[in-house]
Amino acid sequence: MNPLSVYLHIPFCKKKCAYCDFASFPAQGSQVEKYLEALKLEIELYRPLLQSREIKTVYFGGGTPSLLPPDKLLSLLRMILPEGNFGEREITLEANPGTIELEGLKKLREGGFNRISIGIQSFKDQELIFLGRVHSSKQGEEAYQNARQAGFKNINLDLIYGIPGQSLGDFLFSLNKAVSLNPEHLSLYCLSIERGTPLFYRMKSGEISPLGDDQVARMYHSARRLLSGNGYEHYEISNFARPGFRSRHNMVYWTYGEYIGLGLKAVSFYEGIRKGNPGKFDEYISALSERRAPIAYRTGKKGIAALREEAILRLRTSDGFNEEELRRKYPRAFNLFQKKLLSLKESGLIEENRGRWRIKERHFFISLEIMSRLL
Ligand code: SF4
């Protein structure tokens, strides 16, 4: 049996950030209690699958999971891993500065969480205000120091670049600050101004303008150089890690591994089927109150469609994919796919070395464009 990973979504945030289009919102009335009840019922529905597989990684994401009291987070974790022996598993909590104190972090560390991902986004207060974040740069640094003091030895910091008005120097200020703290992992996300968000309307009215592609590309490549010079491996388009500290949970997504997603809008992928939970709070709650699996859609891919999906996911990482392995898995489809691979190789965007195909690191920035040519 293949191992399984578990993602658990906590959709609550103190306040919605100006760029956010995730399944997240400030909790109202008794929403938190109702949601936790529903999550517990959903875990029970998955109990047979959870018991039949080795659970490799658990990831509490959001939203802002660190808004919930540590005891509630730990009781959910114990439901997923009732034997209590967490061994070598990677158990991650997403946390935002200003939502959790040292004592809470200690409880979480003692209770089994061994990796923390902190949404720093920037070490410049004006940028944090622009993004609508609820914390200051100082609180970001405190969150990091507290996590270390609580015993976390595997810490990720998220940063955003490409913020309207941000200069290369502004971004490098935040990045250098992050590096000086010495986290094991860094995720750098390019700000994407999504339809329907407050930043989108400000952009539409002409009040703010997005940065040019060249400016954003300069930030990305400068970050790449700075981080590799500081001992971080650029192992995925947006992710950098010290040796041995890749996100094992996210690697499951990028290597076509199996996982279940619990909670609002969460996605599961196992036995060749991808299933998505509803994004509407009431739909999710009512399905579970009737003891039904809260499934909004279900899709399954085969042949060339599955091969494309797997190859594209794997190409996100510096490991790329092994031709032999994919040929064995998709014997007929691979021949059809190969033509496109060879044409990308000829144009110098993809490289092949002893049967392993990869996007060249310097082309990671345009990887979405490269991947679209494989469709
Ligand atoms: S903290 Fe994260 S999930 Fe919550 S509103 Fe901000 S960006 Fe969205």
Please tag this protein with its features:
TIM Barrel; Arc Repressor Mutant, subunit A; 2 domains; 9-stranded mixed beta sheet; binds iron/sulfur cluster
Q: What's the story with the biggest beta sheet? A: 9 strands, mixed
- The CATH class of the largest domain is Alpha Beta
Number of domains: 2
SSE class = alpha/beta
Unreliable residue runs: none
Strand fraction band? 15-25%
The total of helices stands at 15
CATH superfamily heading of the largest domain: Aldolase class I
Ligand species: iron/sulfur cluster
* Overall number of strands: 15
Biggest sheet, strands in spatial order? Answer: 7-8-6-5-4-3-2-1-9
Radius of gyration, in Å, reads 21 Å
Secondary-structure element order, N to C: EHHEHEHEHHEHEHHEEHEEEHEHEHHEEH
Nearest-integer average pLDDT: 96
Helix content percent band? 40-55%
Choose one word for the global shape: globular
State the CATH architecture of the largest domain: Alpha-Beta Barrel
The N- to C-terminal Cα distance equals 31 Å
What is the name of the CATH topology of the largest domain? Answer: TIM Barrel
